[in-house]
Amino acid sequence: MREITPRTTDLDPAGALPRLVDPFQRAITYLRVSVTDRCDFRCVYCMSQDMTFLPKADLLTLEELDRLCSAFVARGVRKLRLTGGEPLVRRDVMSLVRSLSRHLDSGALEELTLTTNGSQLARFAAELAACGVRRINVSLDTLRPDLFRQITRWGDLAKVLEGIAAARNAGIRIKINAVALKGVNEHELADMAAWAHGEGMDITFIEVMPLGEIETHRADQFLSLDEVRERLAERFTLQPLAERTGGPARYDRVAETGGRIGFITPLSHNFCESCNRVRVTCTGTLYMCLGQEDAADLRRPLRQSEGDAALHAAIDAAIARKPRGHDFVIERGRAAPAVGRHMSVTGG
Ligand code: SAM
Ligand code: SF4
């Protein structure tokens, strides 16, 4: 079994280094890390059929990812989400999870979690739970096996459901994420909410974002969640909740099921004013906003020296440029996506 040995330089006691605060006085406490741009699915809204993936040599090693994440933890990041691409297809990814779990043990990190398509979850559920992963997000856009195969281009729904069951048996709480797709799953969303709540899981619906070139025009996929909400309200009593996670989701309690539905509406409403997060790619590029091109290279300072001084300086310079928010639009006449990189690069 592969093990990562933490370097002594990343063991600074939490609190010794200044917290990360952006120019709009938002504390940066949440880091999402795309550990690979590769995936075993090719969801039609996320990737094109023929994706060119990064050469493996460009990727940060798992040790470097550990060092990078630990630098952010030392600066006050309390929540770490591994994503991708599909995080569970990165070779030896569990050695990273195991190693990062030391920050849970020390109390520096509140939550270590991941977003996954669930295809490999049956294999890894028990070990994730043993590493202190308490809840994860599983992306699932339909419960119909044929449609699932169409959306993911070759995914097997049964495997994902098996993965969800394994995670729940291991004591991990699951939230389902479903992208609302016009003319594809739009009439199934209420049934999906009823299913998720019946299983004791919350569900969040997401609006398609214009990230990366795909075969279909985004306007043909985009479904406003205002419309979805109206339709859900015909079947359920939706009670808006005040709770916020610093992210773009707003939640409702469904009176009939007791479960929660989240709505992530980057297009129809944005909630950037409370943004508490940044994202880093598997090549060590830091994006201060999912919907903007500006980025900072952290790989070079990471590799430049054994110590983390250059890395922290690069992180500080980047956070000082975090923009107020994104300006996504989906317009019929617009040929290019708002942001050229795919969600699988930046990490959803
Ligand atoms: N492979 C993992 C998964 O599917 O959960 C993690 C990475 S995936 C990029 C993270 C999330 O982004 C998924 O919930 C996916 O549905 C969502 N996503 C991908 N492309 C998107 C897009 N263009 N607009 C909105 N959501 C997108
Ligand atoms: Fe893969 Fe997730 Fe993108 Fe689907 S949404 S292609 S599972 S990275």
Keywords:
12 strands; alpha/beta; globular; TIM Barrel; binds S-adenosylmethionine; 12 helices; binds iron/sulfur cluster; twelve-stranded mixed β-sheet; 348 residues
Describe the protein in words.
The protein is α/β, with parallel strands linked by helices and about 350 residues long. It has one domain (about 20-345): Aldolase class I (TIM Barrel). Helix content is about 30%, strand content about 15%. The protein contains twelve helices and twelve strands. The longest helix is centred in the first third of the chain and has 13 residues, at about 60-75. The chain is globular, with a radius of gyration of 19 Å. It binds S-adenosylmethionine and iron/sulfur cluster. S-adenosylmethionine (SAM) binds next to strand 3, strand 5 and helix 12.
